[in-house]
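hey so i finally got around to running both of the ones u sent me last week. sorry it took forever, my laptop kept dying halfway thru and i had to restart like 3 times lol. anyway pasting them below in the order u listed, first the sequence line then the structure token line for each. didnt double check formatting much so if smth looks off just lmk and ill redo it

first one:
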Amino acid sequence: MTFMSFSIREAVDDDARFLPAIERSAGQAFRSVPELAWVADDGVMSVDAHRACIATRTCWVAVDEQGRIAGFLSAQPCGQDLHILEMSVALDRQGRGLGRRLLSAAYDDARKLGLSGLTLTTFRTIPWNAPFYQKSGFYLLPSDMPDARLAAVLREEAQAGFPPGSRCAMRCDVVD
């Protein structure tokens, strides 16, 4: 078996065109969850949305030795937090620690910028969603949370067809 090494770097504008395909590949994992199989065919972040994250220097990519992108994390600053819009690793590259390394890059940058936390919304029970993030230092926010921004994101996700109660908001405090 050949092991490839990967590096994490800040995304550049030209990377944006590859990121929707990575997200589609990652989404194929949902085919193993019958009630969420539709997610595999759902829409992905647009190239322009990724470019907006790249422009604010809040997008990171995992690249292999040949410079091919294997995963990404796209985020946006929201007040004192860095909100993760999407993190995806190509299906055939999952399980190699790339997600943790992408989160680490986002965390390090948030700390350098003096932000107080990383936030995201995700599926509550899918192993590679909330349980993965909990192992990476995130905690579940109570469903009656006072954060209006995250509550609005969860409402939008419910309106988009996500099953009631299937999604949750999470936070990782950034400390010096």
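and the second one:
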Amino acid sequence: MMNVAMYSVMDSVLNHWKKSLGTQYQCVTYKNDAQLLKALVKKDSVQILLIDETHVHDIISFLSDLRKIYNGKVFLFNAIPNVYHAYRLITLKIDGYENIYIAGENLHKAIDTIQNGMCWFFDELAYFIIKRHIQQNKLDEPDFMQFLTDKEKEIAIMVANGLTNKEIAARHKNALSTVKNHIKNIFDKAGVNNRVSLTLKFQ
């Protein structure tokens, strides 16, 4: 059973996370940052740490102190996620960033994704990361493109250029469900499960 530590000063947030995760995870909750840091010094069994940063006074300092004693997975949450703020935090090796009241099903998917060595970010942040990556790196065609159909190649490039599903559907004059199905096939052939990972293949 996976060990999950949860930190928030709000009972409603902790209760939402616990209810969402159910009995599949071994959960321990903390409402005090000093208490959390002290516990992490003693325990090396925590596999993933969920942090509600909404009421953390200085999240940069907090994460810096945290990384001195804990090298595991860190998943940050905020009541109002902000793209520029979150992008800055990525440099401090966070593994995910989401709204604190993420749907239970998506919280499960997010934790599984992070545990499998990938990152999980809310859509707006994912698109922002992709666009920043494109600005800094020229896109080259990766090896997996040879396995795609012509239509999948076009869509893969659009995804790598930061277009949303709706924008792709509008350009191709396809139903949104058709675009989603193409993207699922592209992810399978590329060996990824999210847009950021796909874009990083274009280097």
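quick thing i noticed on the 2nd:
The first strand starts at residue 2 and ends at 7.
anyway thats it, ttyl
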